[in-house]
């Protein structure tokens, strides 16, 4: 059976800038794939490509293909793509404020999505809204449906956005840094809600994050992007036990350890280069502790390691 979502060797360009270069990803039904990397690595762009939304930002897939349930997105027309996004793919944004209309009550905003995608009557749509809110363990669902967005906390607003993403009963949820705008205490709740949807409803989750700790907690596989290219991809357990790519190692080392003094959060020295100034050879070479002279000259190919793959000229000798 084909994967639910499959990106085959895609390159994405906006104008003359090539922002993604030969990225391949596979997400099976009911699985969770973590897509990680620092800001500017191309994570959101990958999500937009998966939803066929690149034209919105003036971008396009210049090479490769995006398939959902075996169907090439490029073969669909706008109406078909919209239907796919509303019904079979649900999207959870980074900032719940931008996803909610401030001048409409919560219930009405969710109702309208069910009416549009499922063709429900007004009453049936409201019943579904209350049911979704209840499924997301929102207390007093009736009262919340009557509330205005500004009356709700950030965490509650993000639950509403998740409810909206669920209205079409999607097979895939794409969540782009869904906890970034939230207080630390609510972040874990939102992650648990998403993990619960995978467990209880069998949806697949593409979770975009820069937090390797979250990936370790809830993902089956992880894909690491750096400067528009795939650095490493594979099942979570072996990658955390023995990361093959130096960038993966660096990201794992950024996870705050218990007992670490506050404020000693480790970062990776240097920054992700901009698409206009990608370094030659391996794009990670200016920041890499393992780099040698050939790293600036040669582009590392993806090499299979165990059930995963990594793109580095100097992979550890021992395979997984
Ligand atoms: Fe580092 Fe070289 Fe491997 Fe790139 S190819 S990750 S610079 S060792
Ligand atoms: Mg982003």
UniProtKB/TrEMBL annotation:
Among its keywords, does the record have Nucleotide-binding? yes
Alphabetized CDD domains for the sequence: ABC_NikE_OppD_transporters
Q: Which GO terms describe its molecular function?
A: ATP binding
The places in or outside the cell where this protein is found are: Cell inner membrane
The signal peptide here is none
Q: Name the SMART domains for this protein.
A: AAA
Instruction: Establish whether keyword Transport is in the entry.
Output: yes
Pfam families associated with the record? ABC_tran, oligo_HPY
Listed A to Z, the keywords are: ATP-binding, Cell membrane, Membrane, Nucleotide-binding, Transport
Domain ABC transporter, first and last residues per copy: 5-252
Membrane disposition? Peripheral membrane protein
Q: Where are the transmembrane segments?
A: none
Q: Which family does it belong to?
A: Belongs to the ABC transporter superfamily.
Which PANTHER family is this protein grouped with? DIPEPTIDE TRANSPORT ATP-BINDING PROTEIN DPPD, OLIGOPEPTIDE TRANSPORT ATP-BINDING PROTEIN APPD
Q: What is this protein called?
A: ABC transporter ATP-binding protein
Lineage in the entry?
A: Bacteria, Pseudomonadati, Pseudomonadota, Alphaproteobacteria, Rhodobacterales
């Amino acid at each position: 059976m084909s994967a639910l979502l499959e990106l085959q060797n895609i390159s994405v360009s906006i104008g003359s800038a090539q922002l993604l270069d030969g990225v391949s990803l596979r997400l099976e039904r009911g699985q969770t794939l973590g897509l990680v990397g620092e800001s500017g690595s191309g994570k959101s762009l990958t999500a937009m490509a998966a939803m066929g939304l690149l034209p919105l930002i003036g971008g396009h897939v210049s090479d490769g293909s995006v398939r959902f349930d075996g169907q090439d997105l490029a073969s669909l027309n706008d109406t078909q793509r919209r239907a796919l996004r509303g019904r079979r793919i649900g999207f959870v944004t980074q900032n719940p404020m931008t996803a909610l209309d401030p001048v409409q009550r919560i219930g009405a905003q969710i109702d309208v999505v069910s009416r549009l995608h499922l063709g429900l009557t007004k009453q049936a749509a409201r019943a579904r809204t209350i049911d979704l809110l209840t499924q997301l363990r929102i207390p007093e669902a009736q009262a919340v449906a009557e509330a205005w967005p500004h009356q709700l906390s950030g965490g509650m607003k993000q639950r509403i956005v998740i409810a909206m993403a669920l209205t079409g009963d999607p097979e895939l949820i794409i969540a782009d840094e869904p906890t970034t705008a939230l207080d630390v205490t609510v972040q874990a709740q939102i992650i648990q809600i998403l993990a619960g949807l995978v467990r209880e409803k069998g949806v697949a989750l593409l979770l975009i994050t820069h937090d390797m700790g979250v990936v370790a907690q809830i993902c089956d596989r992880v894909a690491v992007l750096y400067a528009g290219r795939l650095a490493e991809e594979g099942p979570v357990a072996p990658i955390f036990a023995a990361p093959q790519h130096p960038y993966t190692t660096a990201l794992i080392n950024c996870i705050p350890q218990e007992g670490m003094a506050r404020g000693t959060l480790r970062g990776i020295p240097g920054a992700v280069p901009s698409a206009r100034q990608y370094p030659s050879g391996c794009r990670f070479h200016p920041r890499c502790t393992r780099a040698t002279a050939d790293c600036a000259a040669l582009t590392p190919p993806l090499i299979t390691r165990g059930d995963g793959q990594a793109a580095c000229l100097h992979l550890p000798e021992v395979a997984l």
